[in-house]
Amino acid sequence: MAPAGGSNINQRPLRTARELVEAHDKGVADARAALAQTTDDHLMKPWRLLARGNVVSESARHIVLRDTFMHLSHHRGQLTVYLRLNNATVPAIYGPSADDTSFA
Prior knowledge:
The chain has helices spanning 17-37, 40-44, 61-85; strands spanning 46-51, 54-60. It has 104 residues and is an alpha+beta fold. The chain is extended and about 50 Å long.
């Protein structure tokens, strides 16, 4: 976070559903390719979160990946609450949702 010289991450705003889906699909494809090319030894190596060059957190890479997926599921739960509060249809996440009329 806040690296010297600025971020190397593309912060371009995604303004349409199409742009969001395309960015998501690219991210998933890139992540799958990276995971397919890694090794157990690499996943056991430490990964460091730096803020302005200072180590904020350090864990084995496989732990960081696990924690990231767990954190994403938390945000998925927040999204379903947000959708419900805005009277939007909640999509099926783990199977049919209560908004799926074929759900028995």
